[in-house]
Design goal:
By secondary structure, the protein is an all-alpha fold. Helices cover about 70% and strands about 0% of the residues. It contains 8 helices and no strands. Helix 2 packs antiparallel against helix 8. The longest helix is centred in the last third of the chain and has 85 residues. The N and C termini lie far apart (about 150 Å).
Length: about 325
């Protein structure tokens, strides 16, 4: 009736996407035998969920799963690419804010990682494509670590940060040495310890800044809390060998990055607001200073006029005195 994925040496499938097949009613009899052929590169597989629905229920469920499993990750990918480009422009204009380039690079790599959920075919092998997508996750966390260090002012030594980055690069390179899907997923499960360490590091930095009165870190704390809650949701279902309605781990870490982006943007906005206030205050002081100088100038002019008038008065008095003395002399002569 239909094929989900592609078997054989060039196999390809979507392991995290709920898929279904609609069986035409015209081929159904009173009794039917359903034959399913399953294929995996290792020969082992597990069906976590299988349901039989009528057509209306099937179409409703597929629309829901298409939105949750495909459209939502794609929207998150576009959102992270916007954060990446915006942060890159900030770095170009403010070279001193190196945390912006870390946020830009981390957002870009995580956006690429989210594409692994909705990729349905590729000209390269499934293992290679998945390795490329999976490797973007630890590479993203490498730059998230560095963003936390610079944005929160955490005094982590340079050699320590080099070691932390080396662990991320090791995880990223390790994917390309996994020859099967089982080995790839096992390595990915081990790698998840790395972003958990980043969450702890971010919590430490944000709480440290919050205690110092930097309220803009609240959004980072909220993003980290969402990442922890969503990751715990996925872990709970997989440990219980159940299929969740939607995989939330990727959305959780996207929320963490968006929380960081909001905190970073809010700090820049607060700085610009303070600069605007300072500029207004300086403008008001300039107006007051100009008024003071104008008053001094007017008083100086008045003083000069008064001095000139006084000089004329003294000259007139001198003339009168001269005339008076001359009159006295004339009287004495007479």
């Amino acid at each position: 009736i239909d094929t989900l994925g592609r078997p054989g040496p060039d196999f390809f499938f979507q392991p995290y996407i709920t898929r279904g097949v609609l069986i035409p009613q015209s081929i159904l009899a009173s009794k039917n035998t359903l034959r399913m052929e399953l294929w995996n590169d290792t020969g082992t597989y597990q069906l976590r969920m299988m349901n039989f629905w009528d057509e209306a229920t099937y179409r409703t469920a597929m629309n829901r799963f298409n939105f949750l499993d495909v459209q939502l990750p794609r929207f998150a990918c576009m959102l992270l690419l916007f954060v990446s480009v915006y942060s890159l422009f900030l770095f170009i204009n403010y070279r001193g804010r190196k945390e912006s380039i870390c946020l830009s690079t981390g957002s870009f790599f995580f956006a690429m990682y989210l594409l692994n959920v909705s990729a349905f075919d590729a000209p390269i092998s499934y293992i290679t494509l998945k390795a490329l997508f999976y490797a973007c996750f630890p590479l993203s966390i490498v730059f998230v670590f560095r963003f936390f260090r610079q944005f929160f002012g955490i005094r982590t030594g340079g050699k320590t940060m080099m070691a932390v980055s080396a662990v991320g690069f090791l995880f990223a390179c390790g994917y390309f040495f996994m020859g099967t899907t089982v080995a790839l997923d096992s390595w990915h499960s081990l790698m998840l310890l790395y972003p958990i360490a980043a969450i702890v590091y971010g919590f430490y930095g944000s709480l440290r800044c919050l205690l110092k009165g930097r309220l803009e870190t609240l959004s980072t704390i909220l993003g980290l809390a969402v990442a922890v809650a969503f990751s715990a949701y996925d872990i709970y279902f997989f440990l219980g060998n159940h299929t969740p309605m939607i995989l939330l781990q990727g959305i959780g870490f996207m929320s963490m990055i968006l929380g960081n982006f909001y905190s970073f943007s809010q700090e820049i906005a607060d700085t610009n607001r303070k600069c605007a206030l300072y500029a207004d205050e300086m403008e008001r002081n300039k107006v007051q200073r100009d008024r003071l100088f104008q008053k001094i100038r007017e008083d100086t002019i008045k003083s000069e006029e008064s001095t000139h008038t006084l000089g004329l008065s003294i000259q007139q008095v001198g003339t009168l005195m001269t005339q008076y003395l001359a009159s006295i002399d004339n009287i004495n002569s007479s």
